[in-house]
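Hey,
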Amino acid sequence: MVALCLFTVRLILRLGSGTVDNVLTSFAEREALWIRFKSTRPFAVKVMLGGINAISGEPVVETFATALRRARLLHEEKSIQDYAVIDPANHSQLWLDGIAKQNGKVMQFVAVPSGSGYSVEAQIMNAESTGGIQITVTPIKTAGTGVIQVNRLSGTPIFFKVRLSSTIFKLLQKMSSHTSIPVEQMSLLYQGRRLQNGMYCCLQSSSLFD
């Protein structure tokens, strides 16, 4: 039997005029955690467990091994994004219920006692010096507009006026309305790299290939 409930969060320390809050909540041992994101304007959110980034699986304090892994991902033209985009106006992340592993798999958030050696921090860093969950929220400023030229493999180029803070998914929706091709059947390339749906259209007056 599974039950979903809200956790009570109590403020225990506020620093920097409210820019940093330390809060306390309680979990039962081995209890699963699911974080839902909801906002009225766009934000970039990082979630860390004991100083380990839940989206990238890498420690917040970069090590030499981290730098090598990032370089390899860039060489393979894979994403190194380590934050969730929360934007009610666009296709964005709605929740987070696990932490990425370096082999591409995801581990479920599960509460374990501090000092037990089973925490994410202990398994990755071989130490438990930070503990807890850290959440960093950064506002995404509204950008201007730009013209995106899409060069189709068949047919003449088409142009779209978009906000540079819009996501690739939003651009694909515009293209779908124009071409009647379902979004899931389209993809965009830029400089030989496939653009992910959550990326932003910050390519003013750029040429993309459908």
